[in-house]
Design brief:
six-stranded antiparallel sheet; three-stranded antiparallel sheet; Jelly Rolls; Arc Repressor Mutant, subunit A; 246 residues; globular; alpha+beta
Length: 246
């Protein structure tokens, strides 16, 4: 396995796409649901079930996995958005599923090394719809507050969020998990990492990106990157720099 990740990255509000060579990474689970497609040969990956090889693999939110090698295209979807992957959820009882070329959604089966990823992201073919718009007003108020505070560089605390819906902090934590499947801290960490990546894409140095995103310092952001993606922010920065050269 190469040490460094090399490739290009594009983002929207609900989807991130990486295309390139897999570098060193640790077993990890993240907020986003993920599908990874081998663009050359087969994909090698690990889950709790062991080593697997297939054309592609789908991982639901928070499923622990590790990519081993290959030239791939990985798409990461915010679980709060219904996506092109919605039909795969029911067939992934262990949190993951190996896929053949024929089982890939048509818009993904056609991805190659030459595909214009930004055009794909903007085409509507990935079928992303914000599911929070269909939830109750209390929940939408909580999501708005989280995004607003993080947008201002503040890390809103659980007590403040609980007060919005008139719940105790402990009950609020259970209430949030009941609606999303993950703790509120996991959702906030995903938003912070997205903000940091956006800042780095705009040329902000990693230390500045960490502070803007609401991390206490660069080391805090680095740990969050490693825990969520299995790679360091330096790996991500190198991939971003590679992307800017393409």
């Amino acid at each position: 396995m190469p040490k460094d990740w090399k490739g290009d990255i594009v983002f929207s509000d609900s989807v991130a796409i990486f295309r390139g060579h897999v570098g060193e990474n640790k077993a990890h689970g993240h907020w986003a649901s993920q599908i990874t497609i081998a663009l050359e040969g087969e994909l090698e990956f690990e889950t709790a079930g062991g080593l697997m090889r297939s054309k592609a693999a789908y991982f639901t939110s928070k499923t622990t996995h590790r990519l081993l090698s290959g030239f791939v295209c990985s798409l990461y979807f915010d679980p709060f958005c219904e996506s092109i992957l919605k039909t795969l959820n029911k067939d992934a009882p262990e949190g993951w599923r190996a896929l053949s070329q024929e089982e890939l959604p048509p818009a993904l089966a056609s991805i190659t090394a030459e595909t214009d990823l930004r055009a794909l992201l903007n085409s509507g073919a990935l079928d992303t719809t914000d599911l929070t718009t269909s939830l109750d007003d209390k929940f939408k108020a909580v999501i708005r507050e989280i995004k607003a505070q993080l947008g201002n560089g503040e890390d809103v605390d659980r007590d403040s969020l609980a007060a919005i819906v008139n719940l105790s902090p402990t009950r609020f934590s259970h209430w949030f998990v009941e609606r999303t499947g993950v703790p509120v801290r996991s959702y906030k960490k995903w938003l912070k990492l997205r903000t940091a990546m956006d800042e780095m894409l705009d040329g902000t140095p990693p230390g500045g990106a960490a502070m803007i995103a609401g991390f206490s310092d660069l080391a805090h952001m680095g740990r969050a990157f490693s825990e969520s993606f299995g790679l360091t922010y330096l790996d991500a920065q190198r991939a971003l720099e590679q992307s800017n050269q393409l």
